[in-house]
Fold each of these.
Amino acid sequence: MALISLEDLEGFDDEQLEDDVTDSSEPMNEEVQDRMLAHWQAVGRLHQVSVPREMRGPIQEMTVRNQTSEREPVPFVTVSRHEKLDEILYEERVYPAGKWACVSRGDALYEQSISNAFMKLMRFICKENSTGRYLGMSVPIVNEITMSEDGINFLKEVVTAYYLPAEFQTNPPESSDPDITIIHRDTIRVIARVFYGTTTEETISRQISVLREMLGSSEDIDQDHYMVAVYENPGIPHRRNEIWFIRRGV
């Protein structure tokens, strides 16, 4: 199973999109909207997530924007990079303080939590905000997980976060959805390792173990919280994700 997000739209037939989205100033007809909604619903069923009909408008909006707008990267500075045989094992980065729109979910499955949370954020991005405008997409979407006391399993509550584009950092728009909270996150220093494929509790647990083994024992790394950064289309078999370890006391 994999995250349902903006990127799933790219999994829709590319040639069909090119034919349908010929003029971003013109709304799509209902047949195209229904076809896109049906695509999302089919993906949702695979992941045990329901995609309601009210998502039809945001799906159209993001599809059109995705053809014409670049995504804004979350700003960061690379501190160090660790390589072996020309392969980057992991790198250390500092992400400056900034404002994020966050949704906390505690569904039965990790995949359900992040999927349902992102659909809320998607509506917020697509005009359901105090500006009435499309806010623009930033990457990565970051999911924060908390470990249970045994240090092995995840707690159900997952926080999914969207970094507000630079234009809105000083004056964040308000959401019409009470489940979306705009928070200020302080500067964080992370150790990031790339992995490819699906983002499930199983695959994330494996990546945590791999990076933990590489780093060895370190008291300045948070052992209770980790972040999963999602960059690419879930339809791509070897899509890029990252596991982030958080350094304490930046």
Note: Confidence is low (pLDDT under 50) at residues 1-25.
Amino acid sequence: MQSLRGMHDILPEDIKYWQYIYNVALTTFNIANYQEIRTPMLEDTLLFQRSIGLNTDIINKEMYSFIDNNNRSISLRPEGTASIARAIIQHKLCEKQISQKLWYFGPMFRYERPQYGRQRQFHQLGLEYYGHDNPSVDAEIIYLATNLLKKLSCDTYRLEINSIGNLSARLKYEQKLTEYLNHYYNDLDNDSKIKIKTNPIKILDSKNQNTQNILQNAPSLYEFLEIKSMKRFELIQENLKNLDINFIINHNLVRGLDYYNDTVFEIKTEELGTQDTICGGGRYDELTQQIGGKPIASVGWGIGIERLLLIMKNKIKLSNQDICIYIAPQNDTSLTYSLKIIPLLHKYQLKYEIDFNCSSLKKQIQKANRKNAIICIIIGDNEVNHNLITIKWLKEFRQTIYHWQEIDKLLQNISKQFSFSKQPNIEITQGS
């Protein structure tokens, strides 16, 4: 049997990178007082139809949806924001003018052709701020994204920003854009020919070079922005400069989901080829209203973990922490006796391995040395009969016998002496 196409196992040699990203994110967001939230992977299909938009590729082509045993249409979540907006409404998290600063880490699902850095089950790390529309909030969440990427040694990137205004401005712009593109209809790629009738603004994000050439002389969305949106965009630029964040204004940047308004941005890299976006986000002040609640000002972003890992693993090498203690019982009786040590090792957080094969002492010492253990605890008939343990200090080539009553204090001192880290060993190979 094989895993489904686009659904990959995360093996032990890779999982330490996932844990490293999670722990760096946890520390970074905790400093800014963001709290983690976890939402279900299954939601009512209508949630995504209302939020993402009926004319988007996600809804039309990429959703994993099915009818359950209760005749309900449910879907695997294709992104994280809609689920969090639903949770905000359901649990009344923003009642009485309370703001919510949230982050998430989890799997998402889209049925699309698997390719470099993009799978059908993929994972997102996201951050969202609900309850405030000040442009400074937009700048802060962008700062948190760039700061996190730098901590993960992903520091070769460019930040592109834009304002897409409100719905009224976009409708006026879409009318002018459609009129312009109709003159070049036969020259557009097939995907753009469909979008010109359903969602013309998404053509700005086309990857077809000929379509992009046509768009060079198209009307600019920026020309249709209302004064409030323009002033907001100017303030965001000023705030980013105050945070020493470099950016590029890209007036063709629109993002792929319908719920965005005003601020949109992407962080891109040249290290991933055509799949160059590692972080994207923006403001979605009307999202909660779209799914049946009150409008709540909100802004956020998402980072694709698989793409992030492709960059990070070239720059950071993680190795597992070596075990501290190797337990070497000589027979089944001494193995049973050895189990008494395990609670103490957990008490003092000492990483260990126990040889359940009860192989020869020579082989066990060789295994302990290969695993770079500091101590080998030897348990034989003598130790069992006299309530002792024998400790062999592998690095110092000495061996000592202790009475069982001394073991608790001994292990406590060992823990203090070596100050073992819970984190993997980290080596920055370049671009720290």
Note: The first helix runs from residue 12 to 31.
